[in-house]
Amino acid sequence: MEKYILQTKNLCKNFKGQLAANNISFAIKENSVYGLLGPNGAGKSTTLKMITGILKKTSGEIIFEGHPWSRKDLKDIGALIEAPPLYENLTARENLKVRTTLLGLKKSRIDEVLQTVDLTDTGKKRAGQFSMGMKQRLGIAIALLNHPKLLILDEPTNGLDPIGIQDLRNLIRSFPEQGITVILSSHILSEVELIADHIGIISNGILGYEAKINPGEDLESLFMEVVKKSKREMR
User: Fold this and answer.
1) Is-contact 207 24, C-beta < 8 A?
2) Residue 27 sits in which domain range?
3) What DSSP letter does each residue of 64-98 carry, written as one string?
4) Residue 148: which CATH number?
5) 51: helix, coil or strand?
6) pLDDT exceeds 90 at position 175
7) What is the pTM of this model?
8) pLDDT tier for residue 223 given thresholds of 50, 70 and 90
């Protein structure tokens, strides 16, 4: 029997009469990478912010590990949404030390996550001097500190060069083997196709498609069909 770590049922978010998320229902299998695809402004970030407690849902359900989501579940969820939350005047190690102190975690966790994201050799270099790719990896290291079962990454490859994208791709693909389920949001179809096991396509706040990725499938045509259909339904 397949086990789902996260499910949403008719999840909605209303901003002053406008539905940014409109009855979103999806299911994320444990130890997999789920790609949440959609154009900019489609409702991806809004949906992920509700799952991480940044935004309060208007209606619907969020089910985490078989029970209704509560803020207590955040101890098992790591997230990198929008810009990495870095203190740019601190080193990578110092940034992580601040978080371990706040979360009451063992200091040994710092070396573990630095090794995971390949940032062990940054020394006294401050985070403000890091490349975009290094900042993203440090943001992921922060999200990994609490040993999350679910890791949420919102547009993590934005602004990265090809080498940075490949490094991040390999890192994300390694997580399910470590018992970490990943939700990856993006508008870059080719990247999600290489990383994800399953995809959901969201447009105008509506989840119009959800399925396992099939080899050789024309993801671009599928994506455009879902986006055009959602636009027609909004008229």
Assistant:
1) yes
2) 4-234
3) ETTEE--GGGGGGEEEE-SS----TTSBHHHHHHH
4) 3.40.50.300
5) helix
6) yes
7) 0.92
8) confident
Strand order in the sheet with 181-186: 77-80, 150-154, 181-186, 33-37, 198-203, 206-212
Maximum distance among all alpha carbons in the chain? 55
Work out how many domains the chain is built from and give that number. 1
Structure confidence by residue, pLDDT tens digits, 133-148: 899 999 999 999 999 9
What is the percent of the chain where pLDDT is above 70?
Answer: 98
* Burial status of residue 220 (CB atoms within 10 A of its CB: 0-12, 13-18, 19 or more): exposed
Pairwise CA distance, residues 167 & 164, whole Å = 5
pLDDT by residue (tens digit) across 18-50? 889 999 999 999 999 999 999 888 899 999 999
Can you give the pLDDT at residue 1? 66
Residue 52: partners with Cβ closer than 8 Å, 6 or more residues away? 74, 77, 79, 81, 152
What region, left, alpha or beta, does residue 86 occupy, with left being phi > 0 and alpha being psi -120 to 50 degrees? beta
Q: Mean pLDDT in the chain?
A: 91
